[in-house]
Amino acid sequence: MAERHEFIMAPGPTEVPPEVLEAQLELPYHRGPRFGAVIKGCVEALQRILFTKNEILLYTGSGSLGMESAIVNLFSPGDRILVADTGNFGERFRKIAQIYGVDVVAIEYEWGRNAQPADIAKALDGDPSIKAVLVQHSETSTGIVNDIEALGAVMRDRPQLFVVDGISGIGAAPLRVDDWGVDVLIGGSQKALMTPPGIAFVTVSDAAWKANETATCPRFYTDWQTALSSHRLDPAETPYTPAVTIFRAFAKALAMVEEEGIENAWKRHAVLGKATREGVKALGLDVQTEESDKACVLTAVVAPEGIDGAKISKHVREKFGIIFAPGQGRLKGKIFRIGHCGYYAPRDILMALAALESSLQSLGFPVKEGAATSAAANVFRENGLA
Ligand SMILES: Cc1ncc(COP(=O)(O)O)c(C=O)c1O
After folding, report:
1. What 3-state DSSP class applies to 25?
2. Rounded CA separation 291/161 (Å)
3. What is the CATH number of domain 18-259?
4. Of the residues 65, 89, 190, 323, which should be mutated to test ligand 1's pocket, given the most ligand atoms within 8 Å of the CB?
5. Which CATH number is 262-382's, of 3.40.50.1100, 3.90.1150.10, 1.20.1740.10, 3.40.50.720?
6. Which pLDDT belongs to residue 292?
7. Which sign does the torsion angle of CA 186, 130, 294, 284 carry?
């Protein structure tokens, strides 16, 4: 048989709806009313989806560029920040900040555990020189979703900025920027927002703009003031040449998110997560995330004793053309990750679990074939989706 499209069930890049791919087929000039409307449309749709009135800046680049933009636009070398480090992407925040000479205090959580509001409160009480708290919304290396509402409540009457990496969580897990007191939220196009990779964005609160006025970390491409001045032109622009086609795709994908309704999208992701967890557990496997009831972005599955997690993903990919993500960092080989953020439906989960059951059987880990799909189908039925 001719080679078929490999179906991505990794937590990004994710599958993209055909309408979104099609939207890339026109290439308007990047300075002028047609493209200006695309930028304005993306900003306004994001403001509605994220429940914020804050300015939103769009960059051509991947999510990490958005993370770097937050560090360099908010801080000066020698400033002290607190990173609630729950995994690989918490580590990335630390690394970026350290490269710019920012002094990082970290609370290191065991991978698979959530950041605890009481720990943040204690750290801030103990060190008033801390200027900001940085945390992941969804920590993609372990599958946990941090409770941003509860963490935001701790930050509410404090002077520190609250900076959240929502790159994999936005669109999948609940998030209300203004109500929850998030000063800077960082996002990317290629996960639950169903768009090819290529766009990073940040929301910036008044307090964050104020910090930006005095921040002296060196910056050029990601300078927030420069980006804002261009977005405010009529027609709106970006300072440097943007990934025009991806911006068009992003506008279409955001319209599709709004068509579904963001709260409905959160509910769908919660059901997809629960069905995947129940399916995996029905095979006798553990999920990595202890606090997993909110794990709606991806399911991190602990590989059975004696089988490397990467071997399972390799088998599923080679035999079934489905891509699971391997473990990252210290979880390399120990887990594999089934992504279900974005353009996914019950049929995709059933297909992935069927492929997993068969692959485990082939790799010498005996499972009851049908157990995972049946457990997942029960969850879908309970929620009126099957
Ligand atoms: C939570 C989180 N933060 C940051 C990143 C980095 O994003 P990118 O690979 O788009 O630079 C990712 C990517 O997987 C992520 O999941």
Report:
1. helix
2. 26
3. 3.40.640.10
4. 89
5. 3.90.1150.10
6. 62
7. positive
- Judge if the beta carbon of residue 79 lies within 6 A of ligand 1: no
Q: Identify the pLDDT of residue 235.
A: 98
What's residue 3's pLDDT? Answer: 79
Give which of 228, 138, 145 is closest to 186, Cα–Cα: 138
Q: What gap in Å lies between CA 278 and CA 285, rounded to an integer?
A: 10
Nearest atom in ligand 1 to 64's CA: 11
Residue ranges matching CATH 3.40.640.10 in the chain:
18-259
Identity of residue 308: D
Q: Tell me what pLDDT residue 2 has.
A: 75
Say yes or no: CB of residue 339 within 6 Å of ligand 1: no
Ranges of CATH 3.90.1150.10 domains, the chain: 262-382
* Any ligand 1 atom below 6 A from CB of 89: yes
pLDDT score for 107: 98
Assess whether the C-beta atom of 237 lies below 6 angstroms from ligand 1: no
Q: Is the CB of 168 under 6 A from ligand 1?
A: yes
Ligand 1: atom nearest CA of 67 is: 4
Question: What's the average pLDDT block by block, 10 residues per block, for the chain (386 residues)?
Answer: 88 98 97 98 98 98 98 98 97 98 97 96 98 98 96 96 98 98 98 98 98 98 98 98 98 98 97 96 86 84 93 96 94 95 98 97 93 98 95
What is the 89 CA–ligand 1 centroid distance (Å)? 7
Is 102 in contact with 81 (CB distance < 8 Å)? yes
